[in-house]
Amino acid sequence: MATNETLKQKVIERKANGINEQSPKTQLNHLLKKMAPEIQRALPKHMDSDRMARIAITAVSNTPKLLECDQMSFIAALMQASQLGVEPNTGLGQAYLIPYGGKVQFQLSYKGLIDLASRSGQYKSIYSHEVYINDEFEYRYGLFKDLIHIPSQEPEGEPIGYYAVYHLKNGGYDFVYWTRERVDKHAKAFSQAVQKGWTSPWVTNYDAMAKKTVLKEVLKYAPKSIEMNKAVENDSTIKEEIDKDMSTVIDVTDYSEIEENESIEYQDKIE
The whole model's pTM is what? Predict the structure, then answer.
């Protein structure tokens, strides 16, 4: 397992080799090359360190603020994405590496969750939608669960609720519906950013976060692959070590270090 001590040693080596004067992107590239053997040991078979390095450069090109963050947390977040087989900070919208308190947080989008669920081969369909006040919408729980939603052609106001549905290839299905009030209550209970009133995806992209929330809720009791379980465990975490199973590495997120004015430049892209 590579740690911050390993990284510090790499930094010392870079300085000794005169690399310190180079740009942050070049320094990162050198670090990735130096750590390639350790990174390769922790990567899944379908991924190699060269491809991970290319993904890293793409990520920092799209989000330059990542270069200002702790490099070990950046590599750990990249490793989380690589082990799950999702490419962060790209047009695919599967996952994001987010500058957070001087470190890098890995965050899976609801699109990424759907992609991972679909890969398991067990799902016929899986989706999440918002509900507006002038939609035709009915649902019932109990012995015979049912949900009917006919969206309005001209939605009025803000969504009043959100639901997620999955259908299995074997005929099984389930859904979860939450009112907007319940989503708000969940966000306030589990998001430090919401509690403290900071800029976050709950402010810049509320609908996407709400749909992700109900999707995670319905998947709690759905058939899931090991990969899917790891995805849920790794979501919205910061780590400073790399391992063959990143889901076992401790989340070191420290919300007390986040300043109110520390914005995340591309949070409005999160879907």
Answer: 0.75
